Amino acid sequence: MARSAMCQHLQSVGCDNSDFVRLQIELFCSGLPGAQRGGTTFLVPRWLTGSNQGCPMISSVEFPILVSYSQVTVFDHSTEGPFNQWTSAHVAQGFSWRPGSAAFRTIAESGPHLVTVIVDTIEGEQPADAIRVIEVPFEAPNDGVIEIGSISDSSLLEVPPGTYSLRFECYQPLSGQPARVRFLFLRKANPSFCIVRADPELNSEGQLLLTTSAA
């Protein structure tokens, strides 16, 4: 990518001039006849040089879990009774939510699932092959430790504490492959509830049910 194009791209995702430092890179070929030292200057994000200021660093992880009862839940690890009650209204809208616990209905009723988690990402268009997309508010605890799992299996993760819009994306299971789901933790000051994309098994019309209790 050319220098000007790179700068335009980085600035388009929220980095202004104060987020960049100039880095002098010297290029030389040793041991070759007529080799000479040369140099060029690049603009790079400040966080690449070790500063704690500048552009947010994107992190992601992928892991398998065993889903049961068509649900996968994201919750504060300190929550007692982290799994939620489901009424017919919750099933129809595809999620059951209370502070500290967000449960989502998977397309596959049970079995191995491949879970992808992306934290502090930049919001973009939903993938075309994600057939169920839901967003809810989520507050990561002060210690950043959350858990993602189903009734019989879960994994601990650490994310930066704070307020997120948690996006759940569910993909059509393919024969012979684990079902796939993806969670995106999007930084938003005032996240809201939204069924972004509904498959035929969901009912996105009417008022959403935004309360539940521990199972």
TrEMBL record:
Pfam family, one: ComJ
InterPro entries membership: ComJ_sf, Competence_nuclease_inhibitor
Top-rank lineage group of the source organism: Bacteria
Protein name: Uncharacterized protein
Lineage, highest ranks first: Bacteria, Pseudomonadati, Pseudomonadota, Alphaproteobacteria, Hyphomicrobiales
